[in-house]
């Protein structure tokens, strides 16, 4: 049976991806961790894992029925999780619409056997991986914002030694 590694997420606008990469280059020494490529900077709403085409179709039909308003994403927080070795950007106060959307997608995924992390959902954009030693974070003197008017289903594709996220489908949020 053919499966793909899938997740629902929010793609960041390209201009914001570029700003984040420029800030990261100034804020972190070059030898800290593995930087995520600009085009891969995103916010995961619900991780699905390896999913068959049949299950993917069902989850896409359910995603298409979601009616929810868009929201503003403010990236004004940062942190380091030493165990997974992740440096991330997030929101001091995640918008209610973001939490509602993620909760809905996560519960739909769980109902179809895609096991969800028992940890509470903590919306974040992973900036660096493999950062396992403790480190001082740069001052939180940033406040990036973007309007979120759609969400997407992505396949995580590993080819030629690199991971890239291919958008399979996208759905609009209400204006
Ligand atoms: P991360 O950035 O916090 O590592 C594609 O791999 C996306 O799915 C990434 O954003 C990653 O989150 C998330 N992801 C990968 N494996 C996961 C897992 N087992 N549980 C939850 N999210 C996961």
TrEMBL record:
The keyword Hydrolase applies. A motif (HXTX 1) lies at residues 42-45. The active site is at residues 42, 124. A motif (HXTX 2) lies at residues 124-127. Pfam families: 2_5_RNA_ligase2. Gene3D superfamilies: Cyclic phosphodiesterase. Keywords: Hydrolase. It comes from the Bacteria. Its EC number is 3.1.4.58. GO terms for molecular function: RNA 2',3'-cyclic 3'-phosphodiesterase activity. It catalyses: a 3'-end 2',3'-cyclophospho-ribonucleotide-RNA + H2O = a 3'-end 2'-phospho-ribonucleotide-RNA + H(+). Hydrolyzes RNA 2',3'-cyclic phosphodiester to an RNA 2'-phosphomonoester. Belongs to the 2H phosphoesterase superfamily. ThpR family. This is RNA 2',3'-cyclic phosphodiesterase. It comes from Pantoea osteomyelitidis. The gene is thpR.
């Amino acid at each position: 049976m053919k499966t793909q590694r899938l997740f629902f997420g929010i793609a960041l606008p390209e201009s914001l991806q570029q700003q984040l990469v420029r800030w990261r280059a100034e804020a972190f020494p070059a030898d800290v961790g593995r930087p995520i490529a600009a085009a891969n900077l995103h916010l995961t709403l619900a991780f699905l894992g390896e999913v068959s085409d049949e299950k993917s179709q069902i989850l896409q039909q359910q995603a298409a029925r979601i009616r929810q308003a868009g929201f503003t994403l403010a990236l004004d927080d940062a942190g380091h999780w030493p165990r997974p070795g992740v440096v991330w950007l997030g929101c001091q106060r995640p918008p209610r619409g973001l939490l509602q959307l993620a909760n809905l997608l996560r519960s739909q995924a769980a109902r179809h056997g895609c096991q969800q992390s028992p940890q509470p959902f903590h919306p974040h954009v992973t900036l660096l991986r493999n950062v396992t030693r403790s480190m001082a974070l740069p001052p939180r003197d940033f406040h990036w914002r973007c309007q979120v008017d759609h969400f997407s289903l992505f396949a995580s594709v590993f080819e030629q030694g690199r991971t890239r996220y291919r958008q399979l489908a996208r759905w609009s949020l209400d204006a």
